[in-house]
Q: What sequence folds into this?
């Protein structure tokens, strides 16, 4: 039946992305890269569509297309139902999409007037289309985007309103505790040292590890500590998906002995402590060998508590703005900008590494900044007219107002600066970090969050001052992304990225990890596909921002502002489906 052959929200399998650092348990990498940051539901309404029917009004349908990263090809994602005889449809069927802050998801909404039961779109009248990104919808006030429909020259095609709503199941975590009784004895001299390993099942029947408990030593009746896990990690939001739990006896040499296993589901576990949540631990090999085998012990759920987490999107929907500032390295080690060997070379046919890094990150962040005005700074250059060295100058030449309009404005100011300043040195980061920190220090109420992108070719000269600046900034609503371009050794930068050892200055440790460093050379696509290189870079450097953002809000006890009241369409039309 037309409009029903592909459910809205049906996703192509194998979509990857997500927050790689959300959790890790023991020596397992818990979250495989396929868990989305969250799922959002898109609702579509139109006003004043073109009327293509002679004796009645149009019978509209909306078809959503998505575009693969590094690929211009549009793929159909899903269709709404058809609504008869209206120019102001409020489509009932929603599109459910995976949302990743760190990815640019291009969307195209096409509208047709349906004239027959044929699923072939060419058999129906085209009413226009709208292009946007998923970030643009989510980043609009109240996550509600209103745009004109275009595509038919010389005609006003009406407007489309798309609203994004985060799905609740993605935000729940559960706190669970288990105990076991009469587990099989596996150790020769003592009792077993049992631990549990949880796996969620995948669409193809395989299993992915999602949690491992601690080991309880020398007992056949262990009580494990309560643990917290997101519902997304446990079952990807599908309450009936199989969860497999394996019981092992820990061995020092890593060759842990398998005691047995059982399966359950989120729905079963959510019944809490009851006779339904006492599980027989079965060892299939033993069961096959021994006729009198009953089980290898039992595992009992002691408690099950659901907690709803506030999410990054709650704050964005409540109006929190993300302010983006860029700082570019103008030191002499980049090479003469007029020479093709320079990292600042202005090639008329393709972006240089600075331009690629700036566009890759900026084009995603700009969706979350309503005025699209970005301060753009440079450091390490001699400025006209007197040749003084500056480590904090406005790329547009206006220190009172360093703002550029959109990423295109930043690029323009960057190219203009290259023609007017003299590359010099040294490479000092502290002044630009302190510049953004001054702004961040003036708004600590959660209404704004600042992201500073530093693009540099190399070795930092003011390490002690930069560490001090980062430790101070870790108390403020800001994150710092450093992209290293060119062939230099970036060992010192790794020290600033506090993933392994939290950064400190004069005995004070950073309150939270706010720096993400990546060398651009790790992302360059070998086939020369710059779109792919930029998408990979953006994905990696932006993946940590939502968690850094939330860590600031949590530490400060800042709750999201209530979202503006939902949009209620002024016209209600009788809706029919074919």
A:
């Amino acid at each position: 039946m037309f409009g029903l052959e592909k459910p809205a929200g049906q996703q192509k399998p194998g979509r990857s992305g997500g927050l790689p650092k959300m959790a890790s348990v023991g020596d397992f990498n818990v979250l495989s890269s396929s868990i989305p940051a969250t799922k959002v539901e898109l609702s579509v309404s139109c006003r004043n569509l073109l009327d293509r029917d002679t004796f009645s009004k149009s019978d509209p349908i909306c078809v959503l297309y998505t575009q693969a990263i590094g690929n211009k090809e549009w793929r159909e994602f899903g269709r709404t139902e058809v609504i008869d005889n209206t120019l102001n449809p409020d489509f009932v069927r929603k599109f459910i999409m995976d949302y990743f802050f760190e990815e640019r998801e291009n969307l195209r909404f096409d509208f047709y007037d349906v004239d027959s039961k044929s699923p072939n779109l060419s058999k129906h009248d085209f009413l226009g289309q709208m292009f946007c990104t998923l970030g643009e919808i989510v980043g609009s006030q109240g996550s509600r985007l209103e745009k004109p429909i275009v595509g038919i020259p010389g005609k006003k095609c009406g407007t489309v309103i798309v609203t994004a709503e985060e799905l609740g199941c993605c935000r729940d975590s559960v706190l669970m505790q288990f105990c076991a009784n009469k587990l099989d004895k596996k150790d020769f001299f003592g009792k077993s040292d049992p631990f549990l390993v949880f796996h969620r099942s995948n669409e193809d029947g395989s299993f992915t590890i999602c949690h491992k408990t601690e080991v309880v030593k020398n007992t056949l009746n262990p009580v494990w500590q309560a643990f917290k896990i997101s519902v997304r990690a446990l079952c990807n939001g599908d309450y009936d998906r199989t969860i497999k739990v394996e019981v092992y006896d820990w061995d020092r040499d890593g060759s842990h002995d398998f005691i047995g296993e059982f399966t359950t589901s989120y729905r079963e576990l959510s019944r809490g402590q009851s006779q339904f949540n006492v599980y027989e631990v079965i060892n299939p090999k033993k069961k096959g060998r021994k006729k009198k085998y009953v089980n290898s012990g039992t595992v009992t759920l002691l408690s099950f508590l659901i907690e709803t987490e506030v999410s990054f999107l709650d704050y964005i929907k409540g109006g929190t703005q993300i302010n983006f500032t860029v700082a570019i390295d103008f030191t002499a080690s980049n090479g003469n900008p007029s020479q093709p060997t320079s990292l600042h070379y202005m090639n008329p046919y393709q972006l240089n590494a600075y331009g690629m890094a700036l566009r890759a990150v900026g084009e995603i962040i700009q969706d979350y900044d309503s005025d699209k005005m970005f301060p753009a700074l440079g450091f390490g250059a001699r400025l006209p007219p007197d040749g003084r060295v500056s480590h904090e100058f406005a790329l547009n030449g206006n220190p009172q107002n360093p703002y550029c309009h959109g990423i295109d404005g930043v690029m323009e100011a960057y190219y203009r600066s290259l023609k007017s300043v003299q590359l010099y040195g040294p490479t000092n980061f502290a002044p630009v970090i302190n510049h953004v920190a001054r702004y961040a220090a003036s708004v600590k109420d959660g209404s704004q969050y600042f992201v500073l992108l530093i693009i540099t070719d190399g070795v930092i000269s003011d390490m002690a001052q930069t560490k001090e600046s980062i430790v101070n900034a870790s108390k403020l609503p800001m994150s710092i992304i450093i992209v290293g371009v060119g062939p230099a050794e970036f060992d010192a930068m790794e020290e600033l990225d506090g993933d392994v050892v939290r950064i400190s200055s004069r005995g004070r440790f950073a309150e939270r990890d706010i720096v993400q460093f990546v060398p651009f050379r790790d992302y360059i696509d070998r086939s020369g596909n710059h779109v792919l290189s930029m998408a990979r870079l953006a994905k990696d450097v932006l993946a940590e921002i939502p968690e850094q953002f939330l860590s600031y809000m949590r530490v400060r006890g800042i709750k999201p502002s209530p979202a503006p009241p939902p949009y209620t369409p002024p016209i209600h039309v009788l809706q029919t489906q074919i």
The domain at 38-169 is CATH 2.60.40.150 (Immunoglobulin-like).
